[in-house]
Amino acid sequence: MGGCFSDVRGGKQAVTPIPTSNATVNDAVDHFFLARGFQQLFTPLELSLSASRLRDRDILSKVLFAFFPFSCYPVLKMASLLSDPMVVVYSKKRDGTLEELGRTEVIMNSLDPTWIKKITVAYHFEIVQPLIFHVYDVDTKYYNLPVEMLKLNDAEFLGEGSCVLSEIVTKQGQSLTLGLHNRNGNRGLKNLGKLTVHAEETVASRNAIEVKFRCSRLENKDLFSKSDPFLRISRIVENGGSVPICKTEVVDNNLNPIWRPLCLTMQQFVSKDNPLIIECFDFNSSGNHVLIGNLQKSVADLEKLHEKKTGANFILPSSARHGHGKVLKGQLFVDHFSEKQLYSFIDYVSSGFELNFMVAVDFTASNGHPRDPDSLHYIDPSGRFNAYQQAIMEVGEVIQFYDSDRHFPAWGFGGVTNGAVSHCFNLNGSASGLEVEGVQGIMAAYASALNHVGLAGPTLFGPVINNAAEIAGQSLSCNSRKYFVLLIITDGVLTDLQETKDALVRASDFPLSILIVGVGGADFKQMEILDADNGCRLECSTGRVATRDIVQFVPMRELLAGGQTSVAQALLEELPGQFLTYMRNRDITPGAGNIAQTSASYASIY
What we know:
Elements: H1 8-11, H2 24-35, E1 43-52, E2 63-67, E3 74-78, E4 85-92, E5 98-103, E6 119-123, E7 130-137, E8 156-164, H3 165-169, E9 175-179, E10 194-201, E11 207-216, E12 229-236, E13 242-247, E14 262-265, H4 266-269, E15 275-282, E16 290-298, H5 299-308, E17 312-316, E18 326-341, H6 345-350, E19 354-362, H7 387-399, E20 407-413, E21 415-417, E22 420-422, E23 425-426, E24 435-437, H8 438-452, E25 454-455, H9 462-477, E26 482-490, H10 497-507, E27 512-518, H11 525-531, E28 551-555, H12 556-561, H13 567-572, H14 575-585
Parallel strand pairs: 19-20, 19-26, 26-27, 27-28
Antiparallel strand pairs: 1-6, 1-10, 2-3, 4-5, 4-7, 7-8, 9-10, 11-14, 11-18, 12-13, 12-15, 15-16, 17-18, 20-23, 20-24, 21-22, 21-25
Helix pairs in contact: 7-8, 9-10
């Protein structure tokens, strides 16, 4: 069987372009696409542009000579022509250079233009994406040239606007109006007009089906145990061949398996009447999976199986070319079938849902004394950030755009305050107020704490995670549209691993994700266990399993060694998926006013 993993861990997980309700599927999807050379997924957006009250720079060129009747003398006449504007959109790179994304068409004779041509941009949640907009007046002699061939030096500059892409998508209606100014922020000439930018997600179809399969009485293909079955679903294409679109996870040692739900988009199955091939295989770690049987059904057929609560028999294809195959006793059942609309991360944040940022900083002695230049907490007089400052700034810069008040809880742990070791103290030194204002407020509180907090230990995460979970839990009772993101920065090995697991399992029920950055040269194998990227969800001391994966861990040294400069990008790439897993498990839609809804749906889609 082609297209499946040969490794046991990856091969036993479900594979679908959009994960189901269990967050472990995210890892299988990443593995599936990255193993085939695909890059990280992003959200394509189209930017629509309009302007108002642009300055007219064509006045001198629009003074015409006209001849009045009964006169042989030319007379000066002011034409009613106006500027002919065009917009050029750029992305601003980290080194400050501009990369052109596209140009609108030229609108003739208008100071209040609405352009038709859209500008396509790839929205990455984990990256701060500055955009620059230049508005030009194009001379009439260049009208016949394609806009891509226009030399901007030959056009009259009308104004510049700038913003961050996330500022647009988080606005109600995903529209942002910018004041235009001179180049490079020069405000010398006032009232250059306004530019309105509207972002819209380019999704071919938001329709999807959610289906849960089970089988009964499958034929056993193993000698000393029972088969380990999984399903592969393929779409039949016009030339008669088939294209795999997804597969379930493997259910070990079971001839009556029940699989976790799958979600298929209309882009995958094309139409409800399009035939699908559903194959059942016995998993082998070698990759040579044995076919148990197959059948052909459309989405409409699957819906009927669910309505009638009947099964469909598998067929074992005949080895002969035109044989009919053997009808088997094993049957496929559809335990759940529903149609739904897909909502994206942008749908939620643009309708008022927010991400609330929280930070916890490690003050254990293993960091080294802050005055020692070799210390991980050393504040460089030149202004160069240490690892803690770098993580706070890079992650905070992204998250702050999704938080309306920008007041962030900030804690320290493992340090001595008021003569005793504390494993969760307010970073600003206040006995009651745990919030600071903005990312700069976190940076200032951190620098100040280094002067009056003693470094101690051991390294405990439990108290900080419990505090963050309590805040997230309290938001549920307030019908709040908030999702919380806790950043923990640490240099040490955990001494409360089981207590941390217990706290994470409890926290998985709340609107909370936890990002962990490891700084320094310590052994961070424990953090990788917490990250659950091996496909196994965390289990607490009582045997309860986490409802979803909420942790993402990144060791700073590996980022630096690999040449990656963005901690935020590495940390935040899983966050939209974790956010959507929470929302969709609880059937919370973008228009919902109550994030505390608890009726869990069968799947999460991203």
